[in-house]
Amino acid sequence: MLPTIAIIGRPNVGKSSLFNRLVGRRLAIVDDTPGVTRDRKEAEATIGGRPLRFIDTAGLEEAPPESLAGRMHASSEAAIRQADLVVFVIDARAGITPPDRAFAAWLRRQSVPVLLVANKTEGRQGGLAAMEGYELGLGDPLPVSAEHGEGISALQADILNLLPEAPEEEAGGEGRPLRLAIVGRPNAGKSTLLNTLLGEERMITGPEPGLTRDAVQVEWSDAAGRVRLVDTAGLRKRARIEAALEKMSVGATIGALKECEVAILVLDALLGMDEQDLRIARLAEREGRAVVIALNKWDAVEDRAAARRRVEDVLQTSLAQSKGVPVVPISAATGQGVDKLMPAVRRVEALWNTRVPTGALNRWFEAVLARHPPPLVDGRRIKLRYATQAKARPPTLLVFGTRAEQLPEEYRRYLVNTFREAFDMPGVPIRLHARGTANPFAEE
Hints:
Number of strands: 18
Strand content: 15-25%
Number of domains: 3
Structural class: alpha/beta
Radius of gyration: 23 Å
Helix content: 25-40%
Strand order of the largest sheet: 8-9-10-7-11-12-13
Low-confidence stretches: 28-39, 168-174, 202-216, 232-249, 439-444
Number of helices: 14
CATH architecture of the largest domain: 3-Layer(aba) Sandwich
Distance between the termini: 58 Å
CATH class of the largest domain: Alpha Beta
Shape: globular
CATH topology of the largest domain: Rossmann fold
């Protein structure tokens, strides 16, 4: 039996749109009218090389058992009993509703793992709206837009992480592969580096059929386990890619960064880090990916100290979150230094995957507030109450308090930078979300 994922939620939260995205074809009818889906729909799809079965269910509604809505509810419950994982979808635009709370309470009593998805989070405030989902007690709400395809790669990764290991992976004893992207501007040496890592002349050829894209994948093993190179073809067909990025031919880079866990950014050491390299590094930062810089063609560099200093100066001045990113000088053509690249990748991936213990996090938060309290905003005090690490991959902090949502950008940077220093995470992108308390008696 294939691992089974049931997609459930209230009517009209976007379950069928999400189902269509995940299976890669339009199987379920999508309409704004609540209750369009009445029967369960099933389809198979492959994610990350693993075949899965998805079930699109009718909307969950409280109703008498003999009514149509009641029978639809019973059908959804039957799907949950079959499932290895439940994807519970809420509408971030509508906010948390009483039925959402009731179904979340019911799901918490079930034995099946639940992945909470906040749909309809397109736009600038979408991610913040998703944070409301924390009150359901089902873990980290994952922001997606099924209609626009945003957040689907992260959802696919979370689905794979929450499912039991595939039997062949258990037998191999190495776990799931590290997903790695090799990115950079043309002629920086990406293909040569790939061939050197593989130890053979091997072009990335013929696209494998993927879920929502044509993917090119190459798999190998380093000393720490399996590695899968992820790349994306055909991404330029997306209408919403910014024109400036399209002109710079980094459309495929966006797709690779969405799919990977760590990116190796290959620079031409003779040319240094130019605007296109900066754009790619900022894309990696925006997607929250760990990065290692491969300073290629090192064998041809005469003044090596100056070449390295130029790159580190750019990182210091233009990429605030990338200060401390590992820089590994290599020659992909000769193999010089390439043996140091994958150990650096593994180290930065471990940092990117860090979850700070609650006690240590509380001590850090108390210390930074004591050292530098939040400033007044419009003459009113911001009182921060507590912080929690919502997730890793990348480390994401949630800060709560009176008027916390008004925290100035400089103070947010202060919190992020001191967190990075306190827990030794150089070069790791760190997310910070601030949420104000709704208590009218909160201290002014």
